[in-house]
Sequence to fold (229 residues):
Amino acid sequence: GAVVSQHPSRVICKSGTSVKIECRSLDFQATTMFWYRQFPKQSLMLMATSNEGSKATYEQGVEKDKFLINHASLTLSTLTVTSAHPEDSSFYICSARPGSGANVLTFGAGSRLTVL
Amino acid sequence: LAKTTQPISMDSYEGQEVNITCSHNNIATNDYITWYQQFPSQGPRFIIQGYKTKVTNEVASLFIPADRKSSTLSLPRVSLSDTAVYYCLVGERGNSGYSTLTFGKGTMLLVSP
Fold:
């Protein structure tokens, strides 16, 4: 089946540094990928829609200069948390639709970011 | 976007059938209903999708009444490993574009021995 790989699974960084998270579709091409954030005991919140070859679409309230998204190829999207602060500590999850005709998302395993 | 409402939590015991109902009163004509399962510190996993009536796969069944304003996920003979959060989403399944899938609060299912 369709697989979305996310890396790293866990990352700890110091406040003020930047962290990059990669999301890869392993056996399918994804012109669109989605980035979610999830705080403890809460639901997933859509941050942005990543579009291959064009700018990402950010949800209201999400700072595009802080959460940089790059979708340079049909199998890779990256999320960079710039100048991270402790309040950015969260579980970040990417997803993609593996095929046409079905509004079904395949999710990565998530990346746990801890900012000290 | 169609909003969904689910119970916050449910408790069950091993071997029982569990039915989780989701309300989506303003579901649109082109919207499909999809259920996901999420374990702690993991990404959600697709369970089942349907449009109307009943859909069954190796994992679960999905019951959708004629008015489509609600749906029920049925898990037969649950085990401890079914303890997870279950999300109901509605969104368009169209060739010209897909509506963004928004997660509600989900239902935390706890299965006990």
About this structure: Residues 3 and 26 of chain A are 6 Å apart (CA to CA).
